[in-house]
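Methods — Computational structure assignment.
A single polypeptide chain was analysed. Its primary sequence is given first, followed by the predicted tertiary structure written as structure tokens.
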Amino acid sequence: MRPADVQRLTVAETVDRYAEMVRAKTATGALAPGSAEVYARDVHTFAGLAGPDRVLDDLDGSDVDEVLLRFARKPDGRRAEGTGGSDGSVGGAAPLQSAASQARFRRSVSAFFRHAEISGWVQLNPMLAVTVRSKERGGLRAERRALTSEQAAGLVGAARELGADPHERGRRRRSDQRTELRDALVVLVLAAVGPRVSELTGANSEDFFVNAGTRYWRIFGKGGRTRDVPLPQPVAQVLDAYLAEGRPLLDRGLEPKALLLSWRGRRLARGDVQAVIDRVLARVEPDRRRSVTPHGLRHTTATHLLAAATDMDAVRRVLGHADLSTLGRYRDELPGELEAAMRVHPLLGRDDTT
């Protein structure tokens, strides 16, 4: 028999209450605004897939299994159709959810049901009976997220070209809607510095300063921690051009502090960043083009800095990790790196025969 304190609430009602609770946590500093946005989005997606009018307590493990499977087959709404296929290539149909997105969605749903159990919305947590595993959900995770040197060079080159000559790119658009310099800056910062997407969209113009002739970005990261990261000269040049020429075109006085603005004058949203990357990516030669997410560019930054023998602690500080162990999750293998390491073996000297 169902306990008397279990509330017969619909999925939509419980999701709305949970989303309000999650957002309220940002006011106390218990949760980062970006994380709250992701959790709220995921539970609303869950409601749409599970059926908003169903009673939450009536859902069992098989119902949640079906939701997880449906989510795995759902096209990634953050990606414009035609920018990438399910295999990560550009030019096919809209890609499906990546393995990382599936895992994140599952964590969000698990957290939601733990709260539902404590709040008396369900008698038993259905996640305990879920049987669907990652392999059954499609195994969509690529072997690595980081772009190769050629792929990264293609994307960065397209961004630098766009930043160097924005007027030709935006010739057919209204002057107050031209976003070429902004798009170039977004891609260059993501590729060179590897910030979290929330750190980038949350950046303000005043967070950038010059010290001893070097441009720095004061990044406000997780847990209230800040870090000052020097910008490579090519990135600093595009930043200065954007602040002097690009941002004034977009400024409507709606977000006076925000660094990155939409053409409507609003702070650029997290979901807009992927569209920016895809626009720049479309300018890359097909043989050097591979679809990538903002987080994939964070992996790219870490992988190539470490492959270039950059000090591990320096890379940790650039990315804003609390400890070195986290870097292991961001270091992807690169083709040919083992062969290169053996050619310059410190005990044998450089092999000049190859």
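Note: The chain has a mean pLDDT of 82.
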